[in-house]
Structures are given as C-alpha cells and as structure tokens.
Predict the structure.
Amino acid sequence: MNAKQELHWELERINKKPVCALIQDAWGGPGTLNVTLKKGHTDLEFIEFMNKLDFEYDAGYGSQYIDGTVWFADGTWLSRNEYDGSEWWVYLGTPKIPDHLL
C-alpha cells in the first residue's frame, strides 16, 4: 500500500481538508517516520506533507507500520486503527490538538 495514496483516498472519501496532522512510525525509534502538518499550513506545506508519505508499506497482517491523527476544522478526525497488523484510517470525533502542532 502507498501511504500517500491511502490518505488521499480517505480525504476524498470524507471530502475534508486537514487542519493539522501527525503521522509517525507505529514503533518509533531514531530515524523513523515523523511527518507533521501544522495548523495554518500553506498549500505548498500540504503538498510537501503528502509527498513525505509517498512510500510503500505492508498494510496486510503482521506488524502495524503507521500511526497517526489528522484533525479537521469541524471537530472530526482520522485515526489509524489496527487489528493483527492489518491497518486503516478511521473517521471519528476530535481529540485535543497537541501544542507542538499549533
């Protein structure tokens, strides 16, 4: 699965533009995935954010690769869900935006 294409499809499906986002490696550690989109971002910053997600990962059963949250202006959000390593985006109500994304 391509992480950029997967998020793009989800954003099209719910027809919303992100306010901010934090997407990271599910396991963490030095040199791992840590992609942020700050509140008040420009169109260019959004394109750069999406381009950082242009990589392939195994979305099937096994280990979870991607964790994250995407916030929207109406108080809704996307979050990663996982079952036995299979992962996907879930559209929900909003958590508090962390200070480092403001």
Q: What stands out?
A: Residues 3-14 form the longest helix (12 residues). The two ends are 30 Å apart (CA to CA).
